[in-house]
Design a protein that fits this description.
The chain is of the alpha+beta class. Strand 14 and strand 15 form a beta hairpin. The relative contact order is 0.15.
Length: 801
């Protein structure tokens, strides 16, 4: 026995030593991928030295003699600190994730490969003007030099047993395509959902369930749209397949798969004119809502050009966030203007019914006669195997599959345009001096279509759509149509003169929050691409109208507002339903927390979680019973309309006997099933203890590294503590696990020293950098930190070879 004990002790000691050696080796390997923080390094391609000064948060101030050197230096920093993140962006857009990540991402790659974005990116790069191509190649050179100057490859590649592939000019275009895919669905989803609904419940009920407006709309212009009438019954099955658009084929039943579609990508921004600030300059706020990772999707920077004497270079001083993979500032302030974005959800794509002449042969009708589809063979690869993936394209765009009526659908999308992405306007925006100049640049830009809100140092403010807006002829984009006879088509894009804009409104306030911004003729031009309901926009509007003077900290307080005005209706509805059950002890236990819910999405609130769960059960239940739920598609979770709040409220108020949801004997029975589901969730998640059923239990920040999402054991080494945070997807402080404000800033141009900023996930991409996760806690706690970088702690000089 003693011998056995000695041997066991010896084995345990050896194992402990081995584990320590493995841990030390891993720590050493991670450290080899650390970026250079200080000293001097020779970088080919520079025309003059570039100084990089970092503060405690790792935020660089880059000072160069010209914009080309600045692009090269920014690329160097991106390559050193964010190459894995950049790699994921380009692979996502190209449909090549599985080469690195394996079979788990094959369905995503299939859905995206249909669009052949790598081929499109190559074509765009080939057509760049010489000056833009030169600046892009400088950036690419900087990325690859920065990557090459690391002592070892970024740690993610060690874990994945992979070698990073050098950055190419086309990869920068792919990084912007990745933002198209993050912000817009890769299928014409609104049209496809409408067809599916018509097949399930008939045309009138489908129009009711998928409206374009609700009572909560809060556009800048105060306009109202008409809600569709509520039918009194579901159309009989025989009446649902109408004769419309019979020129499409009807012989299939496969519906197209959608690309990765997270919870609605949101964002807030707003501005007040100089009449509402002490400085006389406009004040702009922006918080872009996206998936939250470690490190942040954004790379914070201050970029300065200080030309040498006699140089033709233009001075520049711009601070904000850059997108690793691209050489320009995305949002921020340049001392003359400040600008930011929210996803616009205008209609940027359409479903085109392919009118086959002979599908087997690939011939189809067009206004120019019979054409034959172009066929491409894409090579789709996972880590250890490849296969051919066929793609068919029409003159309008790729064929993405068949709709619910079996018609072949091609997709026409602004992302497919030869100039869908343009570098020059993005660079020009960095130099814009006035609101008028910035709006003119925005209206000729090539990026995913966004609400562009801007203010300048003179106090002017403005809004427009940045990116190309299709000009439709013969249809409004709400339904799948055929382009075969030419009566319906896209006739180019709106000119800047035709693009909707609001400049210096009388009340000196502009706000956007992914909802409809304008009505009338402007709405007809922009169309409906799945606007969010106006609850957040309305809350921002009300808070802006509640005061006359604002500071950056006042704007931060609005950004952190966690009041859920949308759920007021549901709290009152739930209390009314609970009164129907005075003798049900368990339901009566819900009354007190629901009555005292405070209408705020704060971690300790029990009532808020109960109200939110009740709404979810009712709204999801309505759509699942009538339309169904996606099955076998990991990329699509629900067919609930973006404007579902309107139909749900109207149904619960009216409760028409002919529209009792399937499977329920009455409206009361349907509501009772929702109440039962709430109680079951309390049992399942809180052991039946209502006091433990707090919002914060599910309201976590969820900010994690992409690899720790796949391998949870890595979380303790890579991720910040996963704490509860206030907010909900419907509040101004948007929050859901792994989703929320990817940055927050509020700044007046010319007064950047008074501005505030923070972002989750931190600046650093390597766990052994001193600034890894720095600043994340400020974001969690909502603490104001300076917009400009702080005092210099590390200095790195990039010198010409």
């Amino acid at each position: 026995m003693k011998r056995i004990v000695r041997v066991a002790g010896w084995v345990a000691g050896v194992l402990a030593v081995v584990l320590v050696l493995v841990a030390l080796t891993a720590w050493w390997l991670v450290g080899r991928g650390r970026p250079l923080a200080q000293g001097a390094v020779a970088v080919p391609g520079l025309s003059a030295p570039v100084v990089v000064e970092r503060d405690d948060l790792g935020t660089p101030t880059i000072t160069a003699a010209n914009r080309r050197d600045l692009a090269l230096a920014l690329g160097y920093l991106h390559g050193q600190e964010r190459f894995f993140r950049m790699d994921m962006l380009r692979r996502f857009a190209a449909g090549e994730l599985s080469v690195l990540m394996g079979d788990a991402t094959l369905k995503v790659d299939e859905a995206i490969r249909v669009h052949r974005f790598r081929s499109r990116a190559r074509q765009m790069v080939a057509k760049l003007p010489a000056a833009e191509r030169d600046l892009l190649e400088a950036y690419v050179s900087g990325v690859n030099r920065g990557l090459g100057d690391l002592a070892g490859r970024p740690f993610e590649y060690w874990l994945l047993r992979a070698t990073p592939r050098p950055w190419q000019p086309e990869d920068t275009v792919l990084a912007v395509f990745a933002m198209y895919l993050n912000l817009q669905p890769a299928t014409p989803r609104t049209e496809l959902d409408r067809v599916r609904a018509e097949q399930a419940v008939g045309r009138d009920m489908a129009a009711f369930l998928y409206p374009v407006t609700t009572e909560l709309d809060a556009p800048i212009d105060g306009s109202r749209l008409s809600e569709p009438p509520m039918p009194n019954r579901i159309a009989p099955a025989a009446d649902r397949d109408t004769d419309r658009e019979r020129d499409g084929d009807r012989d299939g039943d496969r519906t197209p798969e959608s690309a990765a579609e997270p919870a609605m990508a949101g964002s807030n921004n707003w501005a007040v004119s100089g009449g509402h600030t002490a400085t006389g300059a406009a004040l702009v706020a922006n918080d872009m809502h996206l998936g939250l990772d470690v490190p942040s999707i954004w790379f914070r920077a201050r970029m300065r050009v200080r030309p040498a004497a006699g140089s033709n270079a233009r001075p520049l001083d711009v601070t904000g966030v850059t997108l690793p993979g691209t050489p320009f500032m995305v949002a921020g302030s340049n001392t003359h203007i400040a600008w930011g974005y929210t996803n616009s959800y205008i209609d940027t794509a359409d479903a085109v019914i392919v009118a086959w002449v002979d599908e087997a042969a690939g011939s189809y009708r067009t206004p120019h006669g019979v054409r034959t589809v172009r066929r491409f063979t894409e090579r789709l690869c996972a880590r250890d195997h490849c296969r051919d993936f066929p793609v068919r394209e029409t003159i309008w765009g790729p064929i993405i599959g068949k709709d619910a009526r079996g018609r072949t659908i091609a997709m026409v999308w602004t992302a497919h345009a030869p100039d869908a992405i343009r570098l020059e306007p993005a660079l020009a925006l960095e130099q814009a001096g006035t609101v008028a100049e910035a709006i003119a640049i925005a209206q000729r830009s090539g990026i995913p279509q966004q609400n562009f809100t801007v203010g300048d140092a003179s106090g002017a403010i403005g809004w427009t759509i940045i990116g190309r807006i299709p000009r439709r002829i013969g249809f409004d984009g709400s339904e799948a149509v055929s382009f075969a006879d030419g009566s319906r088509a896209w006739n180019g894009y709106l000119s800047p003169a035709d693009t909707p804009a609001v400049v210096n409104p009388p009340d000196g306030r502009i706000w956007t929050a992914n909802a409809r911004v304008a009505g009338g003729e402007a709405y007809a031009k922009l169309g409906f691409g799945g606007y969010d309901i106006g609850a957040r926009a309305g809350r921002i509007r009300d808070l802006l109208l509640a005061k006359e003077q604002f500071t950056p900290r006042d704007f931060l307080a609005i950004q952190l507002d966690d009041t859920a005005t949308r759920n007021r209706f549901w709290q009152q509805q739930l209390l009314a339903e609970l009164r129907r059950h005075p003798n049900d002890r368990r339901l009566q236990e819900l009354v007190a927390p629901v009555r005292n819910w405070g209408e705020r999405a704060v971690p300790d609130s029990v009532g808020y979680r109960i109200v939110s769960r009740f709404r979810q059960e009712v709204v999801n239940g309505l759509y699942e019973r009538w339309i169904g739920a996606p099955e076998g598609d990991p990329l699509r979770k629900t067919y609930v309309a973006s404007q579902a709040e309107g139909p749900a409220r109207r149904l619960l108020r009216a409760r028409p006997p002919g529209l009792v949801p399937p499977g329920a004997s009455s409206w009361d029975a349907f509501i009772d099933s929702a109440l039962a589901a709430v109680l079951k969730d309390i049992d399942d998640s809180a052991g039946g203890d209502i006091s433990a059923y707090r919002w914060g239990v599910i309201g976590k920040a969820g900010v994690r590294h992409p690899l720790s999402r796949a391998v949870p054991q890595l979380s303790r080494f890579l991720d910040p503590p996963d704490v509860s945070v206030p907010g909900d997807v419907v509040t101004v402080r948007a929050a859901a696990p792994g989703f929320g404000a990817s940055e927050r800033f509020a700044v007046s141009p010319g007064h950047e020293n008074e501005g505030v900023f923070h972002m989750p996930g931190g600046q650093g991409g390597n766990p052994r950098t001193p600034w890894y996760l720095a600043g994340h806690e400020d974001w969690v706690e909502g603490r104001a930190t300076p917009f400009l970088p702080g005092p210099t702690r590390w200095t790195l000089e990039l010198r010409p070879r």
